[in-house]
Design a protein that fits this description.
This protein is of the alpha/beta class and 231 residues long. It is built from six helices and twelve strands. Helix 5 packs parallel to helix 6.
Amino acid sequence: MDIICGRIYRNGIHRACIGIENGKIVAIAHHLEGKKTDYGNALIFPAAVDIHVHFREPGQEYKEDFFTGTRAAALSGVTCVLDMPNNRPAIVTKDAFEEKAALVRDKACIDFGLYGGMAEKFEDMPCIAYKTFLSKDNEIFCSSDRIEHVLRAVKGAEKPLVIHAELEECIERDTPKNLKEHERSRRAECEIAAVREVLKANGHIHAKIHFCHLTTPEAVEMAKGEGHLTE
């Protein structure tokens, strides 16, 4: 049994030792017999899971690749990541998904899962979930009049839909002419309108939805009120 000692949170912060066998915690006690690695007053936390990363492989490895991204995660205490599909090319087909999986599999330093991209045409993939954008940021775009179609497709595939919630029609009304006006193009109303449109379309479909990086209390409360996940 491997033993590490330090401070843990268990109904308050306490000094404790943790016994580990075959990668699993088997004992937590004030004292355990055996060879120890003592971290003094350092806090010992469970490893984290990051469900929203953008490792830029394939297509933009000059920014980051799967090895450097997962290595940084491991060094930060993250042992599982879920990688987004807006690569170059975007992961919107089964072939593209399988090519990416084969490319990154042996480069990963930690556990990982991959999202599939859901544009307006559904393609079945062995992904952890599907991601779509309601704004024209990349190829993984779904227009507001196709939201219901996309929701039905992911419901049938028994996968969650992960949504970048900014409504394109709203953004287009305030196209920035210069950097000073850029912030206005991403108004709170565009996020709120996107969440409202999705919830309305999903009212009789009941697909599982996860809204990404919401920034307004109104959007968060609307999503949570319907039982959906947010970040």
